[in-house]
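anyone seen this seq b4? input:
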Amino acid sequence: MVKDRGFRFDRRGFAAALLAGVALAGCGKGADSSSGDAVAPAAVEGAVEKPNLKFGFIKLTDMAPLAIAKEKGFFAEEGLNVTLEPQANWKVLLDGVIGGQLDGAHMLAGQPIAATIGYGTKAELIAPLSMDLNGNAITLSNKVWNMVKPDLPKQPDGKPKHPISASVLKPVVATFEKQGKPFKMGMVFPVSTHNYELRYWLAAGGLNPGYYTAGDVTGLVDADVQLSVTPPPQMPATLEAGTIEGYCVGEPWNQAAVFKKIGVPVITDDEIWDDNPEKVFGLRKDFAEKYPATTAAVLRAMIKAQQWLDADSGANRPEAVKILSQPNYVGADYEVIAASMTGKFTFEPGDTRPAPGFNIFFDKFAGYPFYSDAIWYLTQMRRWGQIPEDHPDQWYFDTAKAVYRPDLYLAAANALAEKGTIAKEAIPETDGYRKPQGGFIDGITYDGKKPNAYLAKFSIGLKEGQRVTPAGVQ
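predicted toks r here
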């Protein structure tokens, strides 16, 4: 017997009911069979076509909705038996979803978008749910921090004033250049939020992070700062080895650098773009079409988990940290995860600041997959050459709608609202686009309905008619 959320349920009774529900579903016309025929929606409410599922994740704090949905019984409530499996890196995770070894995954927002447009790997993936807002930071090595810290503006308490501009790195980069060494930083994947946030921060400070040529995944053309890929859990060790002088990564791997005393986070991603979208739950388009009731059940469970994570101003976060600290999930020490997950953020020993919005999972419509979020990622792909040629605004709109699926999110969220599980006010009334957004470190406003006009605003980045060659931008 398991006790949770104010009621008790019997595992054996639940299993029997589940099997009965699946059997009823199988009696319907078009039901799943070993021949692989397409299935119709479940014949009875609550039944799912595929109850046994395997989802992948990377060991990061923002995989929390998956862990909570499993550990708090939300998947089980929806008739799902879910296995969560950590993946070695983002490429392995992506290949697992595309190849069918994984039914879905905690994904970088750029991954299903890039796959759909054929950047790197071609596949039809969708993102019916956004997993969180914010959650990343940029960390510098102790060596570089000690080079920039003396000249930083100070608060009245003597601590550095935030946000810290990347312009402070200009003399450091110049020093490295005089010594004949490139200045290197790490990020987690070419189409990761971390890559685009790090590039955004550097460019806003007057440093060129480099451009991509066709078929190139290094992006080093014209680079003042060289960026390379390192899996998140390996970031601290790579920094300590001196391979890189800083990195952009999700938690708890910035706080790990603080606890190891090998680096200092200098800016959080909400200081680069306030309330920026982060990870998504990604799956194959054909999976959602073949198993519609299963997909809906997964989304309902994850929405419930997201609400639990943000409930009562974060009252559940300590329990969430305890769950995430388990080796089968994030596997970092409780104190390291708690340092950013419980409404605060430590920049260096003695400099811990309130950060109530560092991780947002449900509030501010965090779970809704806005088309404008997808379009922002597409603009950054174009800005840095991953999309080699110009496209009209309509191409951005159509691509976003092919990947981000608010229709699936709304069906799940509205079902929960009808039962009183979540408040109706927690579901946005929108055409799928956010209103023009400020909150960027460079002061530029983003309007998802005007992607080409947005791209024209940047002083560093590709302009209309430009493309990248090995010799530079032409």
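DSSP finds 19 helices and 16 strands in the chain. Residues 196 and 380 are 7 Å apart (CA to CA). kinda curious what u guys think
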